[in-house]
């Protein structure tokens, strides 16, 4: 990775400096196969794309969409399209989105949608694990298990893992740990209903002009990284926009 390139938006394979630990994968973020972050327009903008009309609420959230935090009457709804094998998604999660979820609970509604990318061999499988857990009321727990343990199943050395058998074993272990009926989980994870849910999320993402992960919407407007160069700067910008929306 060139020293002159923005480590937040750099497009390449995983860096050789990636430290594969269960707790933290803190690196200059790169993208397996090339995934852009929030600001895909390259216009150096900041905040949300407020100049564009918001994406319709019914596109961004369906009645059966998964929710990390639900606040009735909340002024702010955050919708994030994620790919569980995406290293950028994992780094945003570990760097600040997990904190946002906890610190803003009771003030915002935080919705997550599936957007598995073809370049990530286990992305669909991970999405099915999350949706199967959701059918037993344990989506949030599986969401955290997948990202907290990302290094266990998502990567193989410096590459994206494609070992479906190993991923299956890990996901079943997480299912057991979070208290799922594992036999039911095994049936649901391969069911057409679960796959249909993922496909609907992807279709809505396409309708919202999602082109990579993670893509985040604040009250219908796509959050843009702008010229932020570090995770800290992106977090600061995101929090500022969140607080601004809450203050309205």
UniProtKB/TrEMBL annotation:
Keyword flag Transmembrane helix: yes
Domain Thioredoxin: 41-247
Membrane spanning stretches: 18-38
Pfam families cross-referenced by the UniProt entry: Thioredoxin_4
Keyword check for Transmembrane: yes
Key words of the record: Disulfide bond, Membrane, Oxidoreductase, Redox-active center, Signal, Transmembrane, Transmembrane helix
SUPFAM superfamilies: Thioredoxin-like
PANTHER family membership: DISULFIDE BOND FORMATION PROTEIN D (PTHR13887:SF14), GLUTATHIONE S-TRANSFERASE KAPPA (PTHR13887)
Family listed: Belongs to the thioredoxin family. DsbA subfamily.
Protein name listed in UniProt: Thioredoxin domain-containing protein
Organism: Saccharopolyspora mangrovi
Taxon lineage: Bacteria, Bacillati, Actinomycetota, Actinomycetes, Pseudonocardiales
């Amino acid at each position: 990775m060139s020293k002159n390139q923005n480590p937040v938006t750099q497009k390449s394979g995983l860096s050789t400096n990636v430290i594969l630990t269960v707790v933290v994968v803190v690196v200059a973020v790169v993208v397996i196969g090339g995934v852009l972050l929030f600001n895909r327009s390259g216009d150096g903008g900041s905040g949300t794309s407020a100049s564009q009309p918001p994406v319709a609420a019914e596109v961004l959230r369906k009645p059966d969409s998964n929710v990390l935090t639900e606040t009735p009457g909340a002024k702010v709804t955050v919708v994030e399209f994620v790919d569980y094998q995406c290293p950028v998604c994992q780094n945003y999660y570990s760097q600040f989105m997990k904190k946002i979820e906890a610190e803003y609970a009771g003030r915002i509604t935080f919705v997550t949608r599936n957007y598995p990318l073809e370049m990530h061999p286990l992305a669909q499988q991970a999405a099915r694990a999350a949706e199967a857990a959701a059918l037993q009321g344990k989506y949030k727990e599986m969401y955290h298990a997948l990202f907290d343990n990302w290094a266990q199943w998502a990567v193989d050395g410096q590459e994206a893992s494609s070992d479906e058998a190993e991923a299956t074993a890990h996901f079943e272990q997480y299912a057991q740990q979070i208290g799922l009926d594992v036999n039911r989980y095994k049936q649901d994870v391969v069911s057409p209903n679960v796959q249909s849910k993922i496909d609907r999320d992807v279709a809505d993402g396409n309708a919202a002009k999602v082109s990579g992960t993670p893509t985040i919407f604040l009250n219908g407007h796509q959050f843009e990284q702008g010229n932020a160069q570090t995770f800290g700067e992106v977090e600061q910008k995101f929090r500022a926009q969140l607080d601004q929306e809450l203050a309205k």
